[in-house]
Amino acid sequence: DAGITQSPRHKVTETGTPVTLRCHQTENHRYMYWYRQDPGHGLRLIHYSYGVKDTDKGEVSDGYSVSRSKTEDFLLTLESATSSQTSVYFCAISESSGGQNSPLHFGNGTRLTVT
Amino acid sequence: GNSVTQMEGPVTLSEEAFLTINCTYTATGYPSLFWYVQYPGEGLQLLLKATKADDKGSNKGFEATYRKETTSFHLEKGSVQVSDSAVYFCALRDSSYKLIFGSGTRLLVRP
Prior knowledge:
The structure holds two protein chains of two kinds. By secondary structure, chain A is mostly beta strands. Chain A has strands at about 5, 10-15, 20-25, 30-40, 40-50, 55, 65-70, 75-80, 85-95, 105, 110-115. Chain A is built from no helices and eleven strands. In chain A, the strands form two sheets. In chain A, strands 2, 4, 5, 6, 9, 10 and 11 form a seven-stranded mixed sheet that branches. Chain B is mainly β. Chain B has strands at about 5, 10-15, 20, 25, 30-40, 45-50, 55-60, 60-65, 75, 85-95, 100, 105-110. In chain B, strands 2, 5, 6, 10, 11 and 12 form a six-stranded mixed sheet that branches. The interface between A and B is medium-sized, with 24 and 23 residues.
């Protein structure tokens, strides 16, 4: 297994509260990603990072922010959680040496419920 | 933009049946193509990949061939097992280094 740890694994929160999800890797990979998985939509990219302090938006970035202050950690923050953000969130990492040929490796996910 | 289209599921088969899950893509340039599998309650695992036209990826009895002329990357297995029951995702990775997924196809294999 790729060394990826997501925390927490499960979280229930109330609408309007801030939430931060953490992804920690031990592989020293350059690229890190946050996806959300919802029925009928597959996985959709929220944000990704191509290095420390280098991040960019994905297709569903509204309502989310990210930070990467160290190679090993990539944080996803919901500034004010809404019910539409109830989902399973996956972190992924990828090395840079193979370019686009390198696969992404995924963590086990965080199930977030916003009530 | 780039996109991936998979056949709708669920696909229900009897054990030892032949499996095909269709995947087509739209992309500029020359993306790399991947199949991932997700077992219940777990994350996604890489199943196989192909990085250029006519490449065949294979793993655990599964195969897929990168067909540029038909923009397809269909997943096949000659004889499925109950343990193959899972959700299968086709995906492409382009020069932006993003991984773009299809919506997934659930496979159910009955004994």
